[in-house]
Design brief:
Four Helix Bundle (Hemerythrin (Met), subunit A); 7 helices; Hydrophobic surface binding protein A-domain-containing protein; signal
Amino acid sequence: MKFTTIIASFIAITSVGVLAAPVPAPEPGLLDGLLGGLGGLGGAKKGAAGGGGLSALFGSKGKGLALNKARLQVVKGLKDCKKALAAATDANSGAAADATATASLAKISSDVDTADTSVKAIAKNILTLQAPGADLEAQVKTALTDAIATMATLLPAVNAGNNADLQSATADLSDALNRTGQAGLQVLADN
């Protein structure tokens, strides 16, 4: 019993000496990159324009869940717009194609493509914890506003005609554009 007590005491003294040894400080600059990268997570630095960091994900008004839901609705809405545009273009093809509808659908398609390209750039910014970009948000707003305005002039012309497939497809397109526009306005309100 005396031998085990001596061994236990020796192990305890040795381990305390090892555990109490000073830990060397990390090399200077070793964590600077990591800590510098994390420093931007709280938002933009004083004097900087825009709101990067976590505010890019959650918005500057603290409505992160609603904001990101609206952002996803914009993405889904643009996908729905493209699908409805394809259906309307198909319905307006062939010998019965209406020249006004063709021009309007081409304009709406261009506007939806502009909005989609800008949304993809915004998503890239957000995923890299940068501010979404007010210029990109303005491009989305302008493109959707223009598409909705063109749609407002197209619907009466299409509804006055007798192409039921085109009427159905443009009604779907109008609905998709309006839902996407409403979601876009929600993003701007929550951001």
